[in-house]
Amino acid sequence: MSIEGRISIDVDFNDSTAGAAEQSLKKISLTDTTTYSTGKVAAFSGTCGTAEVALMAGGDTSYRDSAGSTVAFSSIVAIAMKAASGRIRFYNGLTEYNVPAGRVAVVPPSSDTPTGFSVQTTAGTATYTLVLYGT
Predict the structure, then answer these.
(1) Total-model pTM
(2) Which domains does the chain have, with CATH numbers?
(3) In this structure, are residues 130 and 97 in contact, taking their beta carbons and an 8 Å threshold?
C-alpha cells in the first residue's frame, strides 16, 4: 500500500480603489501546502444530532485502508472536516471547532496520541465527513 496526499490552504484577496488618475491595489495572500507520502489516512462520514457522538477512541479498529487492513493510529497529524449540511461542532479533546454547512476546516489534534473525538450539531441534524491523517 502507498499513500499520496496533500493539505492546501490558499487565501487570496485583492483590495482596490480607483482614483481619478490612478488605481491603488492591495493584495492579501496566505498559502501553504504540505504533501504526504507516508503515514495513514482514514475517512468517514455520518449524520449527527444535538447529542455528542464519539467518533474514535484509542483502541478503535473500524477504520480500514484501501487494502481492507485496519488503520490504527499512534498519532494524529491533521484532521480535516466538512459539514455537508447543518453546522457541526467538532471536539478534539481540548478545543471545540464549529464548522458551517458547505465549509471545510483543517485543525490540529489536541495531542500526539489520539484518545477520542466527538461531533454534534447545534440544532436539528447535520451530515459530516472527517479525514484523519497520522502515523
Answers:
(1) 0.75
(2) 38-134 (2.60.120.10)
(3) no
